[in-house]
Amino acid sequence: MAETVWKLGRQEQWLRLLRSGDHRAFAELIDKYKEAVFLCCRTLGLREDEAEDVASETFLAAYRGIRWYRGRAELSTWLWSIAYRQGVSYLRKNRKEYQLEAELDGRIDDSKERGPVAAAQSREEAAMVWEAVERLPRLWAMTVVLHYRERKSIADIAEIMQMRENTVKTYLFRGRERLKGILAPGLGENMDVGR
């Protein structure tokens, strides 16, 4: 309990330093969240050089906007939201040939399924799953990555991607269904790709 209080006190102190423009605190923020920001960029399909540009813009926007961060969402969710918006904006401006919307058809399955990584029994199988996720339509891949890799809730994903929760659920369902089709030959027909 005392450790939790200390961590909360440390985080509040760190946030105060960030809001005051402390460069060391901001460097710590970058170091702590750079992998998540690059994961967001890669999931959107950005090349390495594009991802670096978007990551820079993301952290610049975070630096400028940290004083307005009030803690309604986790800091990681707030940064994912910024990275997602920066990445989509970049794609819209620079790569108009990419269609950012996934095609939707059918209905959402409300059953409680297991996640895609739960099907992977070894590192090799887990790598196959995440490689397959990269082959999904971008928005489906983003929801799968946020939900299963980053452990974000449906509500957090909806906030990050600025869409309704039902749309997030649909993208997750469609992504899981497509993953089943992609992975069935390599992992066996009885594999369970879901929650």
Please describe what this structure looks like.
31% of the residues are buried. The protein is elongated. Helix 2 crosses helix 4, helix 5 (123-133) crosses helix 8 (165-187) and helix 7 packs across helix 8 (165-187). The protein has helices spanning 2-19, 23-43, 48-65, 75-94, 123-133, 138-149, 154-161, 165-187. The protein folds into two domains: 2-94, Orthogonal Bundle (Rna Polymerase Sigma Factor, Chain: A); 116-187, Arc Repressor Mutant, subunit A, CATH 1.10.10.10. The model is unreliable at 1-6, 97-114 and 116-121 (pLDDT under 50). It is mostly helical and 195 residues long.
- DSSP E strands, number: 0
Residues in helix, % = 55-70%
CATH architecture of the largest domain: Orthogonal Bundle
Name of the top-level CATH class of the largest domain: Mainly Alpha
The total domain count is 2
Relative strand content: under 5%
- Written as H for each helix and E for each strand, in order along the chain, the element string is HHHHHHHH
Task: Report the radius of gyration as a whole number of Å.
Answer: 18 Å
Mean pLDDT over the residues: 78
Coarse structural class? mainly alpha
Give the biggest beta sheet: none
Write down the CATH topology of the largest domain: Rna Polymerase Sigma Factor, Chain: A
Principal-axis shape equals elongated
Number of helices: 8
Give the low-pLDDT segments. Answer: 1-6, 97-114, 116-121
For CATH, the homologous superfamily of the largest domain is named as RNA polymerase sigma factor, region 2, helix turn helix motif
Span between termini? 31 Å
